[in-house]
Structure formats: structure tokens, C-alpha cells
Amino acid sequence: MPEQSLYERLGGAYGIAGAVDVLVDRLFANAAVNANPAVHAHHGVPANAPGYKFLVTAWSIEATGGPKCYIGEDMVKAHDELSIDQAGFDAVKMEIAATLNFLGVPGAEHDEFMEIIESYRPQVVQAA
Ligand code: HEM
């Protein structure tokens, strides 16, 4: 039997949407993430949460080997006006890892997802 994709092992659209629901609420409330004023201009507005959850869910479905469904910008364009530095990226990365722990995602799937996130660091970090 072929190995299941990470998408399938994370519970498909329901599992991923459920995790992103928790994650985005935590990111919007995270003081370290919101220390960047350009990030706070977006994450400080509760009305942005539903659309952002939709986009991050679809991105995560595609990035983990699920069906093509992401309609947003690529990761360079999505972040190029935000001056995200290494510490800003690390703050989000820590919140993602904490959310996966909080939800009880098993070690192998946790590590695989965090490797995907880390692989996008050069596209997201655009400040000196
Ligand atoms: C690999 C890590 C990351 C992923 C997968 C990711 C994913 C996304 C996605 C899918 C969007 C929506 C793009 C669109 O509107 O078309 C987005 C936008 C955004 N991201 Fe990220 N992101 C990451 C890292 C970060 C970090 C580190 C920060 C802040 C420190 C951040 C802050 C934002 C903000 C504020 C927006 C909204 C920009 C706007 O429309 O005004 N992201 N991100």
C-alpha cells in the first residue's frame, strides 16, 4: 500500500481547517507576532480572520500534497510589504509548533509540516 500523503495523515480538509482555525486565533492574539506594525495592521483586525483562515487552510492543503485549491498570492508577494525579519518568522513558527502540540499532532507529521514551513523562510523574511 502506498504511503499516505501528509495531507491525508493530517486529517484532510477537516483536520487542516480545524488546526488553522486554532492557529489563526492564536496568531492574531500573539504579542510577539503583532510587534511588527505592518503585521498588526492585518492581524489586529478581527474581521480579517475568516478570509485569512480560508487562505491559510487552502495553502496548507496544497503544501502537504492535497488537491490544488489555493487562490492567494505566492509567499514572496504575500509578504513583500511586511518587513518580516528572522525574529518575526520565528515568532510565527513557534506558534505553529505550539498549535500542533496543543492539538496532539503526532511527531512524524509535526516534524514534516515544520520542515515545509522552514523551507519558506527565505521567501517570507524580506527585512535585513
Ligand atoms: C511559512 C510561513 C508562512 C505561511 C505559510 C504564510 C501564509 C500566508 C498566506 C496563505 C497568506 C495570504 C496571502 C494572500 O492574501 O493572498 C499570508 C498573508 C499574510 N501573512 Fe503569512 N505566512 C507565513 C509567514 C508569515 C509570517 C512570519 C508573518 C508575520 C510575522 C506573516 C504575516 C502575514 C500577514 C500580515 C498577511 C496578510 C498580508 C495582507 O494581505 O495585508 N506570515 N500568509
The radius of gyration computed from the alpha-carbon positions, rounded to a whole number of angstroms, is 14 Å
Number of domains: 1
CATH topology: Globin-like
Any idea what the CATH superfamily is called?
Answer: Globins
Largest sheet: none
Name the poorly predicted regions: none
How many individual helices? 8
Principal-axes shape call: globular
CATH class: Mainly Alpha
So, CATH architecture? Orthogonal Bundle
The small molecules bound here are: protoporphyrin IX containing FE
What is the averaged pLDDT score? 97
Percent strand: under 5%
The percentage helix is 55-70%
Give the structural class.
Answer: mainly alpha
How many β-strands, per DSSP? 0
Encode the helix/strand succession as letters. HHHHHHHH
| N/C terminus separation | 47 Å
Structure description:
Pfam families: Bac_globin. This is Group 1 truncated hemoglobin. The chain has 128 residues and is mainly alpha-helical. The protein has one domain: Globins (Globin-like, Orthogonal Bundle), CATH 1.10.490.10. Helix content is 66%, strand content 0%. It has eight helices and no strands. The chain has helices spanning 6-9, 12-29, 37-43, 49-63, 75-79, 86-103, 107-119, 121-124. It is globular and about 50 Å long. The mean pLDDT is 97. The structure holds protoporphyrin IX containing FE.
